[in-house]
Amino acid sequence: MCRKSRFYIILCFAVLLLLMGSPVQAATTEVQAVDQEAILLPSIFEMAANFVRSTGLFSFLFPETGRFFDGIGQFVMIGIGILLLYLAINKKFEPLLLVPIGFGAILVNTPVAGMADPGGVLYYIYTIGIKTGVFPLFIFMGVGAMTDFGPLLANPKTVLLGAAAQVGIFITLIGALFLSEFVPGIHFDLFDAASIGIIGGADGPTAIFLSSQLSPHLVGPIAVAAYSYMALVPMIQPPIMRALTTKDERKIRMTQLRPVGKVEKIFFPLVVLGLCVLLLPSAAPLIGFFMFGNLMRECGVVERLSQTAQNAMINIVTILLGLGVGAQLSAAQFLNLSTLGILLLGSIAFSIGTASGILMVKLMNLFLKNKINPLIGSAGVSAVPMAARVSQKLGMEADPQNHLLMHAMGPNVAGVIGSAVAAGVLLTLKSLVI
Amino acid sequence: MIIQGLKLTILGMGVVFSFLVLLFVLILIFAKLLAPFTKKELSLAGAKKPARNKPRQPPDEHLKLTAIISASIAAHRARAGRH
Q: Minimal Cα–Cα distance from A248 to chain B, Å?
């Protein structure tokens, strides 16, 4: 029985093969007769050779451009994409962004597919959302809808810490110019240096927005550096914080924050926007969207819009933003000395921002009666809420009863405004350059 | 080139600091201006709380009760240990 059925199955296949074969033969003879009516296919050997030539493996080894390193470069970039995925999945490094960025890096380096060439899907995502600066602004709106300015309003002194931590941006800018002056193989112009400096703002969307406007060719490395270092904040900051503070300073207790009223919270985004309109209109895209999101949160009459901005919308845009940034991680743009320079400068930017925030607290403490715990100064480098959590952790280490989290949220959100202002100043470069 | 960077740094930090110092001043002014609203809100929120708290026993009695309960638990445990 079993053997019989097997026989029938084989017979059926044989008949099918014959049936499939005969029309092909018929077609070829017909083609010769009717000439141009059907599509001509080359011989089977040529087809097989063409297929082999269109495989990824072949393209890696013998790239279309003819230069051996282009193919290997793509292969290495896929490796970097996988490394980013590993860091995101296994080490939990900013997974919301590094998963799409890592995957985008793999897709964009797939040979033959040309997904980042005009017509490819990643090309459109990048052109529509990142080149125009639209996606980072949407993200900023969502961040605004998630931000509670209460701790800042309760203790407005901490605004100054958000300003001090931006020193890192400008020192890094000078560092970038220094590198390009003295290290052969690295060439950054003033725009590039400004885009690299903004990594020190520790704010992903701001960094992507500014670099997409000033030096689009660096968007990939800058975004990767910014998000990697933001993930590394719990490792970069503590040694600097310990080195710059004494044990007694770390034990300083801060008075409880006063409650903040709803009306104050509604007025705040409008006040910031007003200041921006009057003083620095070039920062209006960033600050405007940030404050729009925050007003939706605080006004209390558009709960649905606020929920959408801080959940559905920011998630959708994050996916697209990540893929679009990943699309910039091509071998030609990433595998060079400049990227190493950017990674190096990024870590310097974070360290200086952290240090200057702490030193600012120490300076302010010279004049204040109610001392501020210097550990919250480091939270001035945005990186919300990671930097504030680091302050809390170190505070608990010195004194288990000392809760700094809410106090650190003040400089933390001030840092976001500070880096947006710094980005606004750097944006004016475009019109300043003679 | 580095000179250009220095110029930008001075301008940039100047703008960042003056923007945020102004913001600091404005927050203080608005906190003063809006203080009546805040006070009203807080008193509304505060008025509800004591109403809920009233039926509770005063803390003094509370402490006594805790002492009595813990003593009886201790006594029970001691008796249980003997068996």
A: 28
Of A273, A274, A321, A279, the C-alpha closest to A293 is A273
Q: Which two tokens stand for residue A247?
A: 């044990």
Nearest to B2 among A174, A279, A280 (CB): A174
CA distance B45 to B30: 21
A423/A199 Cα distance (integer angstroms): 10
Which stretches within A109-203 are classed as H helix? 121-125, 134-146, 150-154, 159-164, 167-182, 190-197
Q: From chain B, which residues contact A within 8 Å (Cβ)?
A: 1-2, 4-6, 8-9, 11-13, 15-24, 26-28, 30-31, 34, 37-39, 41-42
Cα distance between the two ends of chain B: 89
The Cα of A260 is separated from the nearest Cα of chain B by a number of Å equal to 7
* Domain interval for residue A201: 149-299+333-432
A207 in a structural domain: yes
Please give the distance of CA A390 from its chain centroid, rounded to a whole number. Answer: 21
> Which chain A residues are Cβ-neighbours of B34 within 8 angstroms?
261, 263-264, 267
Distance in Å, alpha carbon of A215 to nearest chain B alpha carbon? 16
Query: CA angle, corner A386, sides to A338 and A157, nearest 5?
Result: 105
* Distance in angstroms between the alpha carbons of the first and the last residue of chain A: 90
Of B20, B26, B42, the CB nearest to A414: B20
Residue A26 burial by Cβ neighbours in a 10 Å radius (0-12, 13-18, 19+): exposed
CB pairs under 8 A between A and B: 116
Model pLDDT for residues A131-165, shown as the tens digit of each residue: 999 999 999 999 999 999 999 999 999 999 999 99
Task: Please tell me which of the candidates B9, B20, B37 has its beta carbon nearest to residue A163.
Answer: B20
The ipTM assigned to this model is 0.85
Q: For the segment A18-51, what is each residue's pLDDT rounded down to a tens digit?
A: 555 544 454 455 545 555 567 888 899 999 999 9
Inside any domain, residue A262: yes
- Position A163 in a domain: yes
Mean pLDDT over A185-197 rounds to: 94
> Does residue A126 sit within a domain?
no
Closest CA to A405 of A362, A375, A363, A368: A375
Structurally, chain A folds into a number of domains equal to: 1
Q: What mean pLDDT is predicted for residues A399-411?
A: 94
Q: Which residue of B has its CA nearest to A194?
A: B5
Q: Give the burial class of A348: count Cβ atoms within 10 A of its Cβ; 0-12 exposed, 13-18 middle, 19 or more buried.
A: middle
